[in-house]
Amino acid sequence: MQNGDACLVIAGVHKGKAGRVEDRHVSKGGDVTITVRQTDGTRFKTLERSVVPA
Hints:
The chain is an all-beta fold and about 55 residues long. The protein has one domain: SH3 type barrels, CATH 2.30.30. The chain is built from no helices and 5 strands. A 5-stranded antiparallel beta sheet has the order 4-3-2-1-5, with no helix packed on it. It is globular.
């Protein structure tokens, strides 16, 4: 996933939500987290493994 890509969350707390990838970060532990911005402007963070391209 890259910044600006449309995505759909398929697992976790935000399951079913969709939006655009805004920020991608690799943590010290190796997990990739992304910030997703929904069309209404709401942002949330989730793991990259929990999303698929939309």
